[in-house]
């Protein structure tokens, strides 16, 4: 399936947003924010959201430093 991930074209075989996060190395305890097609997706919604071809996914992890 073709998606857009953080502004770049990407391919995945993940079926859900949670599966995509796992595929990218974010475990279920990871502190990340996700959005699909411009809409915030809460952690509890990720396992239920079925990815669709062409979805625009944003995954943001906080950074530390100064």
Could you describe the 3D structure shown?
With 66 residues, the chain is mostly beta strands. The chain has a single domain, classed as Ubiquitin-like (UB roll) (Roll), CATH 3.10.20. Helices cover 11% and strands 30% of the residues. The chain has one helix and five strands; from the N terminus they run E-E-H-E-E-E. It has one helix at 17-23; strands at residues 2-5, 8-11, 33-36, 39-41, 56-60. It has a five-stranded mixed sheet, with no helix packed on it. The longest helix is centred in the first third of the chain and has 7 residues, at 17-23. It is globular. The N and C termini lie far apart (38 Å).
CATH architecture: Roll
Number of helices: 1
Assign the CATH class: Alpha Beta
* Fraction of helical residues: 10-25%
Oligomer: single chain
From the alpha carbons, calculate the radius of gyration and give it in angstroms.
11 Å
Q: Give the percentage of residues in beta strands.
A: 25-35%
What's the average pLDDT?
94
Helix/strand class: mainly beta
The unreliable regions are none
Order of helices and strands: EEHEEE
CATH-assigned fold name = Ubiquitin-like (UB roll)
Ends apart, CA distance between termini: 38 Å
Task: Give, in spatial order, the strands making up the sheet with the most strands.
Answer: 2-1-5-3-4
Q: Any idea what the CATH superfamily is called?
A: Beta-grasp domain
State the major sheet: 5 strands, mixed
The coarse silhouette is globular
The count of strands amounts to 5
Number of domains: 1
């Amino acid at each position: 399936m073709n998606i857009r991930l953080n502004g770049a074209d990407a391919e995945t075989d993940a079926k859900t947003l949670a599966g995509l996060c796992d595929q990218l190395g974010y475990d279920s305890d990871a502190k990340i924010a996700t959005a699909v097609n411009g809409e915030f997706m809460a952690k509890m919604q990720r396992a239920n959201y079925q990815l669709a071809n062409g979805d625009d996914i944003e995954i943001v992890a906080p950074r530390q430093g100064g």
